[in-house]
Amino acid sequence: MPPPTQGPLWRVYLFFLVPMVLSNILQGLSGTLNGIFIGQMLGTHALAAVSGMFPIVFFFISLVIGIGAGASVLIGQAWGAREPHKVKAIAGTALTLGALIGVAAAVIGVVFARPAMQALGTPLDVLDDAVAYARVMLLIMPLLLVFILFTQLLRGVSDTVSPLIALALSTGLGLLLTPALIKGWLGLPPLGIQSAAYAGLVSYAVALAYLVRRLGKRHHVLAFDEPMLDALKLDRAILGKVMRIGLPTGLQMVVISLSELAILALVNRHGSSATAAYGAVTQVVNYVQFPALSIAITASILAAQSIGAGRVERLGAILRTGLWLNTLITGALVLLGYALAHHLLGLFLTTPEVLAEAKHLMHLMLWSLLLFGYQAIVGGIMRASGVVLVPMAISVFCILGVQLPAAWLLDGRLGLPGIWVAFPVAYACMLVLQSGYHQLVWRKRPIHRLV
């Protein structure tokens, strides 16, 4: 079918956006449900142990997101130009690379889980549980990373429904398996804090198998037919183009994850209660961030498809539509988050003092997700044309040169709240610099197809 780049842009955005937001919510819901089950059924110490693993998992996911971003731009341009053979070749190279990263993560997890958790300053009272959980989570990385990458590639060809169905299946299985494994229900062995990781292993395997079967029955362009299986290799020419866009994007994501490690290390110095509050706030913030990220991804996909179809004149309208949708959707969720902060955080935290602290921390930074969304949309438009180095450098500078120093300085002056104030400071800096580069440099450059 032709790519949906025609008609009113708000309708085109919604075509992509509604299934994608639901998919991101379901993907986050899996982690959220695990946090609720662990926090309510195993206690605050167990939640603190699991929270310490978030940045490490995000580190490896970041690499795959970068690959997926690069591959999706190329796939979007090839799909916009109606060249399905190029779509398969790009997808095959990306999936092979993602699987190799997953294997590396599994090996690293087995060998270095304890030293990594110790280096993060994980509180001693939860260290053993944190290490046990980390090892299992990293062992399932090959499956998890391929699943995440595959859903990204599908969106490049305008398919946001298949990832939604697969994620619904995965989340539903996780909802059933995690509490059953925690308590040993249904004749299953009680696995305690590792239950969420093992439940993830089963749910992602089943969802990926379903996704492969669904695409095959529908003769999808990314179905695992003979041409697609032949494409599962590292094609040098394609790999170079994927990495040209994906490597800077992945590096940016890795820097973000490393900054989260540094932030977590600062938080851990305040004790396991602060770590648990960090985990709870992160869970809630993710749900406000999902639509902003989804709008940015949609903007990038639509821009890439428009470039591939030779309709560069639509890029300005795509950007403007993304910005006002971020204002409406993310802004509404920010207001909702403030109104329901006590109840939302109470899903994870049972200790009144920790709950009150988490509520205060969330109030300090939630509003800044609007700024985060704006800069992500601007960056997504530029990435669709293959321009990634300067936007990446801006993001890295704002994280390493602004956020981390601000967090360290404000922690010394204000304590734990100061760490969270550094987030809006960094997001504001990103928005100013990304917008300036877009207006003063990018708009004046010629835009050409990459494939």
Count the beta strands: 0
First CA to last CA: what distance?
A: 20 Å
Major sheet attributes? none
The percent range for strand residues is under 5%
What is the helix tally? 17
Say what oligomer this is: single chain
* Helix content, binned percent: over 70%
| Helix/strand structural class | mainly alpha
Which features does this protein show?
0% strand, single chain, 451 residues, mainly alpha
Description:
- The model is unreliable at 1-5 (pLDDT under 50).
- By secondary structure, the protein is mainly α.
- It has one domain (9-444).
- The protein is globular.
- Helices cover 81% and strands 0% of the residues.
- The chain starts with 8 loop residues before the first helix and ends in an 11-residue tail after the last helix.
- Helix 1 (9-41) runs parallel beside helix 7 (161-183) and helix 4 runs antiparallel to helix 5.
SSE order and pairing:
Elements: H1 9-41, H2 44-51, H3 54-80, H4 84-119, H5 127-139, H6 141-156, H7 161-183, H8 195-217, H9 226-230, H10 236-268, H11 272-308, H12 315-339, H13 341-346, H14 352-365, H15 369-384, H16 389-414, H17 416-440
Helix pairs in contact: 1-2, 1-7, 1-11, 2-5, 2-11, 3-4, 3-6, 3-10, 3-11, 4-5, 4-6, 4-10, 7-8, 10-16, 11-12, 11-14, 11-15, 12-15, 14-17, 15-17, 16-17
